[in-house]
Write a structure and sequence with these properties.
single chain; alpha/beta; Rossmann fold; 8-stranded mixed sheet; two-stranded parallel ribbon
Length: 295
Amino acid sequence: MPSYALLGATGATGSSVLRHLLYSSSSSDLTVNVLVRSKSKLLAAFPGLDRPSARAPTPTIRIFEGDSTNPDVLCAVLQDASLVFMCVAQNGSPMGTTLVQNTAAALIEARRRQAQPRGELTVIQLRSASLNPVLAVQVPRFVHRIVCFCLAAGYEDLQRACVLYEAAATEALLQYVLVDPPTLHDARGTQTTGYRLIDTTDMEDKERQKQAICLSYADLGVAMCEIASRANKLRGQAVGVTATGPVRQTWTVLAGFLIQGGLEHLDYRYGRENVGVVAVCILLLLGGLLYSIKA
């Protein structure tokens, strides 16, 4: 019976993955080890998850409560697992964030501690299309640079985690697949509308590499499960995901994260007082421009 591990199951991506595993008929013979910081929060989102269902065959769920950066906890979570969904993340992009790379380091350390011989383990790591050259080039350069500036800390954290996975793969500790979606929307939505995986290694079929700018979390969860089912063929690759149906867009949420990350990055690079002075000058210039136009 195959066994998966899921890290970050209470977040928007992790809950979408878990939801699909629970209600997909093809997952009924799975064992899923779920790691969360708060078991009560998980059970509030998925009532009865800790009790077997009598209505229909569902995966066997084992819930672990703890920190994803703790190798001791991960040793238990990864026991017998052949694949792990890495959905650990945090809202925004606070400067100095190291959550993803620390989780990757802890996971690799847990693999080192596991008794020999180890079974194969594939990490399905959520990344971003902004970090995939084939997909990022489809976005206007000015927009791409703004997004990368505002989310610089989070992207750096992701990139360092990926470097750790690459090194671990060369040691045969694990394999990995990177998942690169566009902007993600509708965190609370559960309705899927369709998606398609993008093979970013196929340089001949440019049309198939086109990526929509929006994707729902619900469709991302299903896409990650498909990638898991094809992990043997996708190891070491970065796989894009694009929507094929309508997406309920929640740009205000994303704008808030961008503004917060951008301000923190400006503060980090130039100092809060200097940023404040520049902001006031810009507002005064805009005010003067508007006044002159009206006059």
